[in-house]
Amino acid sequence: MKIQDLSPAIGSRKKRKRVGRGPGSGHGKTACRGHKGQKARSGGGVPPGFEGGQMPIQRRLPKRGFTNPFKKKYELINLKDLNVFEPNTKIDVEFLTIHGLIKNVKDGIKLLGEGEISKPLVLKVNKASKSAILKIEAAGGTVEII
User: Fold this and answer.
1) Where would a tag sit more exposed on the chain, N or C end, judged by fewer CB atoms within 10 A?
2) Residues 32-51: pLDDT tens digits?
3) How many C-beta atoms surround the C-beta of residue 82 within 10 A?
4) Mean pLDDT in the chain?
């Protein structure tokens, strides 16, 4: 088999529908919009959530609570995830990103105490739970809050 003999699997590539290109195309004249009416006009259609004049569901349902727009969102790391590193490793944001334990740092990193740790590690995180700090220090490591 040669590279020029390769082709995509049958049915994996589909041409987009080109409408309004004459009667021979099969999608000419009304361009698949039907005859007249609101949806046939340019800019026509109803906004999302419109229910034909009936009171929309998002206005019928009661609203409760409050969402704080200033809430901090932390990327979470558990102690059980850190057992793979060598003793006395300096672990910070860049280190965790490089090793794939976190994808994107939102407002920082929070260390949680789930699991056990047996190696002394040096951690620099934005927040840490009390149980996580106790377990790290019991293993001979340190936690620095930045």
Assistant:
1) N
2) 999 999 999 999 999 999 99
3) 22
4) 90
Using alpha carbons, select from 117, 116, 112 the residue that is nearest to residue 128.
112
CATH fold of 75-145 reads: Ribosomal Protein L15; Chain: K; domain 2 (3.100.10)
Residue from 105, 85, 99, 115 nearest 146 by CA = 105
d(CA 42, CA 122): 63
The ranges assigned to domains in the chain are 75-145
Backbone angles phi, psi at 76, to 5 degrees: -100, 140
pTM over 0.90: no
Residue 42 confidence (pLDDT): 92
